[in-house]
Amino acid sequence: MRIITLALLGSALCSGQGTNECKPSQLNIPGAQYPCVYPDGRARFRLAAPEAQKVQVRIVGQGFDMTKGDDGAWTVTTTPLVVGFHYYTLVVDGARVADPSSRTFFGSGWENSGIEVPEPPEVDYYLAKDVPHGQVSQRWYYSKVTGKWRRCYVYTPPDYDAGKARYPVLYLMHGWGEDETGWHRQGHVDLILDNLIAVKKARPMLIVMDNLNAVKPGEDGTIFTSMGRLPPRPAAGTGAAAGAARSGGLASFTEATFTEMMLTDLIPMIERTYRTLPGRENRAMAGLSMGGMQTFLTTLANLDKFAYIGGFSGSTGGRGGFDVKTSHNGVMADPEAFNKKVKVLFLGIGSMEGPGTKNFSEQLTKAGIKNVYFESPGTAHEWLTWRRCLNDFAPRLFQK
Amino acid sequence: MRIITLALLGSALCSGQGTNECKPSQLNIPGAQYPCVYPDGRARFRLAAPEAQKVQVRIVGQGFDMTKGDDGAWTVTTTPLVVGFHYYTLVVDGARVADPSSRTFFGSGWENSGIEVPEPPEVDYYLAKDVPHGQVSQRWYYSKVTGKWRRCYVYTPPDYDAGKARYPVLYLMHGWGEDETGWHRQGHVDLILDNLIAVKKARPMLIVMDNLNAVKPGEDGTIFTSMGRLPPRPAAGTGAAAGAARSGGLASFTEATFTEMMLTDLIPMIERTYRTLPGRENRAMAGLSMGGMQTFLTTLANLDKFAYIGGFSGSTGGRGGFDVKTSHNGVMADPEAFNKKVKVLFLGIGSMEGPGTKNFSEQLTKAGIKNVYFESPGTAHEWLTWRRCLNDFAPRLFQK
To answer: Do B30 and A141 touch (CB under 8 A)?
Structure first.
């Protein structure tokens, strides 16, 4: 009798968590019902693949085998997923492909699928609201350093077009395997700033989003892969294209060339093209993950040009351990002088990413280096962490 | 003896057309060597799918079965493809997916793969050149008509930011299954205009690219599918979402609602936000395929608001045949008055698309309606036709 009761209860539970409760992901193509997300964060995926032998979805480091139904469609419901934006991939008989039901997002070096496990509805800092809206513009420019045309995106605040004011500038970098589209497509940078500016929490500013790729003609870039950092190619290589090919389509750059390109080409182009405020106190740089590492390398070597520094999941003290006297060519050796120069040194991280950044922040504090430690509760190495970082970081910028 | 000679010759030809001659498509993700395109237009595709039973590439209406190699990768070389941009799809054991080696482009209602079979190198009207560059900006706005936030992209010419001048505006529409990103991603609208403006062939203008999707709350939109136009849903439907779901993720709109949205929300937002020139003689509308049909419906019903009209592969006289006296509510019944009002009526088409547009143009001419017929040589119903249409159409706009 108890067994029957449980069976009925089970059936009732199933119907209570039926398809109606599974809401299509906000990142689906128009009209697609799958993938959908249950209120508890489980996601249900579906792919029509009538002749496949094995189909799997890979998301947040896990694989979920899908099951074939009578209609030839494969489905699976995952365990609860952490809140936020996640890249995910389908594997169809060994082929790694994007889900055709999803919008695609450039990540891990290719056009990956994405799913949004939504925050509670009251969390709306990155949603479109009835406030004045700025815009994100695609800008082409020629780099003398790399000898190539480059593309960046520029956020201009709501009052930029109508007014004559000049603005400070934040240079904001993507992470490994991503590109200059990440911050507005995955990160909602424009909506976050629109919302902050509307309630006067952040100063109106420009935000410039460029691409880490930067090698000089003939130069072989360092390749970052999911396995870590590979050394520069030997001289026998055929340049950036060969390097990128070896890594399966990832960024090819050297840190020094990126910095040189930024100082020689990008910043002058921005300051020539837009109404910007001059000087280091009107320039900030931040980035996520690999872009955070680049931020530290660029800014700490050029404190005459930047007064605000942000690392989002990209700051654990650098390679080979941190030493206040010697790290970054000793730029922090005199903490008082450093604190006077650097108006904000921001270290953000998701709480599920481990203690490295917190330890680094405490090391800095102990050494007398002022810094802001921000921890995003319950999130991992993904875009919800970085949206929250930006939302906390932007209001700290360019305050006199 | 003759047979042996031919065999040797064949072998020599094969080695002459080896992998070195197959250049990676410009639309590949960084570093991807495949797909690549041979000088004669054949394309070679490659997909790693070690456990698949059958893999096919579908492109320009044809299917090419791929062959599995010892390394688990499937490859095929197609027959020569027509020049231009083509969507293409891989079918892996029955699953229709995008090629992970390609950038994705919103077409046919999803994030499809694309390949560019390049024009000869001397054809550079849509390439980035060393000329002043305008920008393409993402703009959010709220529509009172649909009750939803909408996104459009706006091209502003090179001198817009630095100057104070006011500009005329071209409203430029995508086609079936595409969206507001098509004209700058697939169409290179910004580079085409930059290049035209640099040599003073076109007047500097704004170009607004919106999305055909537009239904009022509770309204059931007409669905266009690859099989043609479906009638509006019966009242029992649950609105746009259900309609779109039925069609597999395609545009849901009614022509009248799109026009109302455009006149009520879009045009006033643009003219409020940007430095535009007022009046019908400073407004043009054009579109490709379904967007061309919408252009005719919107402009011919509102000649007090538009003086320039362009249909790119979207103009064969409308449904049910053309009659100069009665079509479009008789707006052409007085050809002389119509010719005076409409400064340019442009009908573009690819030469491989059939004679419908040419016949329509001749019908118009015979009826006394001035029009421009433009035929793109050797191209089909795809983006190279439409880039060429724009390149021919834009210089004709807003000339006093």
So the answer is: no
